[in-house]
Design goal:
With about 240 residues, this protein is an all-beta fold. The chain has one domain: Single-stranded right-handed beta-helix, Pectin lyase-like (Pectate Lyase C-like, 3 Solenoid). It is built from no helices and 20 strands. The chain has strands at about 5, 30-35, 35-40, 55, 60, 65, 75, 80-85, 85-90, 95, 100-105, 105-115, 120, 140-145, 150, 170, 175-180, 185, 210, 230. The chain is globular. It starts with 5 loop residues before the first strand and ends in a 5-residue tail after the last strand. InterPro entries: Pectin_lyas_fold, Pectin_lyase_fold/virulence, Pectinesterase_cat. One of its GO terms (biological process) is cell wall modification. Keywords: Aspartyl esterase, Hydrolase.
Length: about 240
């Protein structure tokens, strides 16, 4: 049983630009294989309960499991993370961040529903060149491919999660989330993506959400209920 270490930054990036740049320390190119990471304080939902916090570094995980509840996974500013295999357990916005992350062949286990699975923040105005829009040059993205999103086997049996969970919502208007060839069980609401509460209840440009080859959530591949901002991609793009 391992308590997840922190690499290069120990705080969550907040505000419009994330944390200010900090002096480099720790491991800037970390790899882990077949380790269970758990937030030991979070044996139930207790607001934010990170199991990873990685900023200003590269990190990759192979066959590892991550268990918490709200805000479990954080990929911070100027960070690239890659995850292959394993399971991430959480409930509210449990994949969030302000960097670039790619999940491949990962199981996302919904212990509950609140907010969405992915809450991402893209590049903001201070990172642009002049007034040039960042889209499609936004490099702070979240990608999920060849994975599955399911009700967690350890979810409270009294919880009705049917159609209660969403795929993503934007932490700022420049958010990008792409989901490819991923199975989704009936915990996922057919609209897929939602606005961030407290903001205008529309998903604005240049927010970019996209799916390709998703299955299981909408019987017969029916995409009629998807959010209007959800780009359904074909094999060529």
């Amino acid at each position: 049983l391992i308590v997840a270490p922190t690499f290069n930054a120990s705080l969550i990036g907040m505000g419009t630009v994330g944390l200010p740049l900090q002096p480099k320390f720790g491991n800037v190119d970390f790899k882990a294989y077949h380790i269970d990471f758990r937030n030991l304080a979070a044996n139930y939902a207790i607001s934010q309960a990170l199991v990873t916090d990685i900023s200003y570094a590269k990190a990759s995980f192979y066959g590892c499991n991550f268990a918490s509840y709200q805000d479990a996974w954080y990929t911070g500013r100027n960070t690239s993370t890659y995850v292959k295999g394993g399971t991430i357990y959480g409930e509210t916005n449990y994949v969030f961040g302000f960097g670039t992350v790619c999940f491949e062949q990962v199981t996302f286990a919904n212990r509950g529903c609140g907010g969405a699975l992915v809450a991402w923040k893209g590049t903001n105005k201070s990172d642009r060149t002049g007034t040039t829009p960042i889209t499609p040059g936004n490099h702070y993205d979240a990608y999920i491919s060849n994975s599955q999103i399911i009700r967690s086997p350890d979810a409270n049996t009294t919880l009705d999660l049917t159609s209660k969970c969403y795929l993503g919502r934007p932490w700022n208007d420049d958010a990008t989330t792409v989901i490819i060839r991923t199975y989704m069980d009936d915990t996922i609401n057919a609209t897929g993506f939602i606005p961030l509460s407290g903001r205008p209840q529309v998903i604005l440009n240049p927010t970019y959400y996209a799916e390709h080859g998703s299955y299981g959530r909408c019987p017969g591949g029916n995409i009629s209920q998807h959010a209007s901002a959800d780009h359904v991609l074909d094999a060529a793009r």
